[in-house]
């Protein structure tokens, strides 16, 4: 059986204030054409369909057109909600859409109920695990502890229990939206840390034949059977070196992955990160190839140049982001606030602050528990407010 694995569409998102709806529409055209031309048996969408819980009307219309085209092409689609999606909004009409071959899995209660497809070798059970916020689903899933690993483990227990009731030889696929250990993040994924821990081991998915992951924006192979498709478009300059693709996966008669092919997505405009003195960036002929790229320029001039953005735009008309990192003798003490925070989580920033005001004395274990609990409470309050607002 052949699957087209994709995720993290983030419909409605912009790139440094540049709208991406046309680029997202081009990707969805490509997706439908690939599914049809490569004779795909099912499309797997592993979460973050939208960029926000309340998507814009143009984003909803784009999504609606894509579903109609997949249904008209006769390609079954299995889709889960991600941490950016409103599960309740995305799941509206799931029963009716399922009759058209569009299977939305947004409710944790349905984790143990697969979409079952059949080929010449028998049945394949596809289980959708929507993004699981630990504090909201722990009791529902019967997890013994809080945290991502515990709730995903409880969800997979339901998957394995259902699979055990099915005919011998039934193959299995799981869609999940999570940060799995070994994956490389970028700057454009929303932090899902709970209790100071966000990554879960790949072993939590043991017992199934293929795991279609979403959340991380780079295409990655954690094991031959556990893969991230990555986002189809770049959503931050940290993704400048990404090759944006979907996975074309062939599942053999015994559940083995017999082929895994990366299918390139359309690129609306390449990305480039340039660094150096402004005059050098403007004069260096090696940068001619970046004229049509979206540019992030980091200027290292000791003194900020006059009107740098205007001058950059004359040579690079699509410059979107300008960063100043002056060359100084003592860069440690004078580093910019943004630079000091780069790559650090909210919890790390809070811990650093406490250490600073205590003149080097950090948190003890009890204080760290209180701090992490406060962050988790804020996350749960926000998720609860959004969920109640959808009722």
- Strand elements, count: 17
Q: Helix fraction?
A: 25-40%
CATH third-level topology of the largest domain: Purple Acid Phosphatase, chain A, domain 2
Number of domains: 3
Oligomer: single chain
Major β-sheet profile: 6 strands, mixed
Structural class per helix/strand content? alpha/beta
Domain Calcineurin-like phosphoesterase: 1-217
Pfam families: Metallophos (PF00149), SbcD_C (PF12320)
Domain Nuclease SbcCD subunit D C-terminal: 268-356
Family: Belongs to the SbcD family.
Describe this structure in words.
- The protein has 391 residues and is α/β, with parallel strands linked by helices.
- It has three domains: 2-264, Metallo-dependent phosphatases (Purple Acid Phosphatase, chain A, domain 2), CATH 3.60.21; 271-338, Barnase, Chain D; 346-389.
- The protein has helices at 21-37, 57-72, 87-90, 94-99, 134-141, 148-164, 278-283, 308-315, 331-334, 337-341, 346-357, 365-389; strands at residues 2-6, 14-15, 18-19, 42-46, 77-80, 102-105, 115-119, 122-129, 171-177, 210-214, 220-223, 226-228, 245-251, 257-264, 271-276, 294-299, 319-324.
- The longest helix has 25 residues, at 365-389.
- The relative contact order is 0.12.
Could you list some keywords that capture this structure?
3 domains, Purple Acid Phosphatase, chain A, domain 2, 6-stranded mixed beta sheet, exonuclease, globular, Nuclease SbcCD subunit D, 3'-5' exonuclease activity, 22% strand, hydrolase, Barnase, Chain D, alpha/beta, 12 helices, single chain, Mre11_N, 391 residues
